[in-house]
Amino acid sequence: MKLEHSFSVPAPVDATWAAFNELERVVPCFPGATLTSYDGEGFAGSVKVKVGPVALQYAGNGTFVDRDPANHRAVVEAKGKDRRGNGTATARVTARLAPEGASGTAVSVETELTVTGRPAQFGRGLMQEISDKLLDQFVACLAERLGGPATEKAERTAGVSPDAPQQTAFAPSATTAGSARRTSVTSQRAESDWPHPNGEVSEEPAPAPDVELDLGAAVVPVLARRIAPYLIGAAVALILRRFFVRKAG
Q1: Can you give the pLDDT at residue 26?
Q2: Rounded to the nearest 10 degrees, what angle do helices 215-248 and 124-145 cross at?
Q3: The CATH number of the domain where 23 resides is what?
Q4: Which of 138, 157, 190, 249 has the highest local Cβ count within 10 Å?
Q5: What integer pLDDT is reported at residue 43 of this predicted model?
Q6: What pLDDT score does 249 carry?
Q7: pLDDT at position 104, please?
Q8: How far apart are CA 81 and CA 88, in angstroms?
Q9: How far apart are CA 240 and CA 66, in angstroms?
Q10: From CA 91, how far away is CA 169, in angstroms rounded?
Q11: Do 104 and 8 meet the contact criterion of CB atoms below 8 Å apart?
C-alpha cells in the first residue's frame, strides 16, 4: 500500500531538518516507539502495539538509503517482526521538506508499507484513517518540541496497490547526514536541548513514560464515524415503521 501525507511544522526548514536528524528525539513522538540504537546511518528499535486484548511488540532495524541535505530529502527503509511471531512489517519512507511562508516547513511523506498478522485484519480504508489520527499526534508532539503551536495542514491522500496485502502506516521520520556515531537510546530521551525556530535553544520537555500504541482506541472513533449514518438511518426506519403500523391499526 502506498500512502501520501502532508503536514506543516511551525519552524524554519533548516531547524526542522536538524531536529529530524536527532532520531532519539523524534522517535518518542510516535506512540509506542522506542529507539534502541543509532550510528548515524542505521538504527534499531521497537514499537509496542495493542490490538484489543492482544499486545504485540515489533522489533526491527532500518537504514537511510538516501539523504540529500541540500534539498532536504531522505529515504528510509525499515523492517521488523513481532517478537512472538505474530506478524511482520516492512516500509520504505520518502520524506521531503520545503520552506513554507516566513518561518514554517511543509513536509510531504510517501510511505510504501506492508504489514502481516493481527494489525492487517483492518481494511485498507480503515487503516488509512487510523494512520491519519496517529499522524495528528506525531505532528502535535513535533511542533511542541520545535517551540511552536501544533499547526497542521490536513492534506492526506492514499494510493493503494491492488495486489498489496492488508497494511497499515507508520508516522514518518527523516534525518540528515552527520558524523558517524553510536548512540544507545531508551524511552528516556537524552538531556541535551532542542533547536528553537529562532535559532535559540529551548529546554526539552520531561521524558514521557513508556507507552504502547493502542490501535483499539484509535479504531473506535473511526468506526463510530463510519457506522453513525447507518445507525441513524436504521433508527429513522424503525420510527417510520412504527408510525405506519399504528396508523394502519
Answers
A1: 87
A2: 130
A3: 3.30.530.20
A4: 138
A5: 94
A6: 56
A7: 93
A8: 4
A9: 62
A10: 9
A11: yes
Q: How far apart are CA 156 and CA 41, in angstroms?
A: 29
The helix/strand/coil state of 17 is: helix
Number of domains in the chain: 1
Closest CA to 72 of 11, 146, 132: 11
pLDDT tens across 198-226, in order? 444 344 444 444 445 544 444 444 444 44
Tell me which residue of 51, 32, 211 sits closest to 127, measured CA to CA: 51
Distances (CA, A) of 67 to 19, 112, 115, 192, 229: 15, 18, 25, 24, 46
Per the structure, the complete domain to which residue 147 belongs is given by 2-214
Contact between 64 and 52 under an 8 Å Cβ cutoff? The reply is: no
Interatomic CA distance for residues 156 and 177, integer angstroms: 28
Closest CA to 3 of 163, 173, 125, 140: 125
Residue 94 lies in a domain: yes
Cell of 230: 447507518
Whether residue 242 is contained in a domain is answered as no
pLDDT value for 52: 64
On whether residue 119 sits in a domain, the answer given is: yes
CB 24 within 8 A of CB 185: yes
